[in-house]
Fold:
Amino acid sequence: MKILFFSHSFYPNIGGIETVSMQLVNNFIERTDVSIIVVCRTKEIGNLQLPFDVVRDPSIKKIVSLLEWCDVVFENNPCFGMSWVNFIIRKPKVVALHTWIVVPGSNITLLQKLKKTLLSDYNAVIACSNKIRSYTFEKALVIENAYDTALYYDKKEVKTMDFVFLGRLVSDKGADMCIELIQELKKNDGKEYSLTIIGDGPEMEDLKELTKNYNLNPQVRFLGFLKGIAIVRELNIHRFLLVPSRWEEPFGLVALEGLACGCIPIVSDGGGLPDAIGKAGVLFKRNSLLSLVQTTKKLLKNNADQTRLIQLANSHLNLHTQKEVSQRYFDVILKALKL
Structure:
């Protein structure tokens, strides 16, 4: 099988789409009967020696020749700007949705209507969460994202810290709600819980000022931007991962990564975050500090619930390994080719 794999952005760029694309291609290429060419707009090459060809920023003529070469087309997120030629050539095609075409709550534009309509022309549409499916394309098959099993795992270390937030420091991610939570727990219950904030962004100084105003400096650590094993070390020593996103995350991979490192996720109920944690975490009402505080206090007081959630983690994580998720993607592509 010859797969033409479209990913608008690709290695060496770093991000959610790039990570999923690399995971899928690496798993597909392990099959002896599969050849893959990746097509992207990313011009930088990077230092890795990749076991597959990458065509960067191709001309329309080049895309036509690649379409003539392939048996099936896969788009990791719609790549209409490059793949539109296939609406004429008509090779079997599958597309995966990893983000919103229309953000929930916003008005739909004519261009967005066109994009949603074009999805009906694909042999199969995959959505990374139930919310993406229901809001973008009802006929999509839900295949939730995978996490990096080689990097994120529970080292069974002693949990010396309480809460951790991991993400970009912008208002949509809700890091300020984590600080407000620590303040409410201290004010109402007199208990001083620790909070670690991992990440950087334009809200950093405001968050530090908020911490100072509440006299929480002894309880709150700001570690800035971390990556790789440094993040894993931190997650492994924390009891709870806070994901208080105000916007509706398409999936919320960070919740899955925290879960893999032995944290109990406490996440907002918007977007794909409920899918990301399954039954192994707790939900609170999105953008509600009151709900976050009440949900957290209830969990802190119930050791049996904490134990139950930890026990549910493994079965949920087993459904999100790279091997498991890639196989489900491959099965959809194979079926599209046979139609």
Notes: The radius of gyration is 21 Å. The first strand starts at residue 2 and ends at 6. The domain at 2-146+321-338 is CATH 3.40.50.2000 (Rossmann fold).
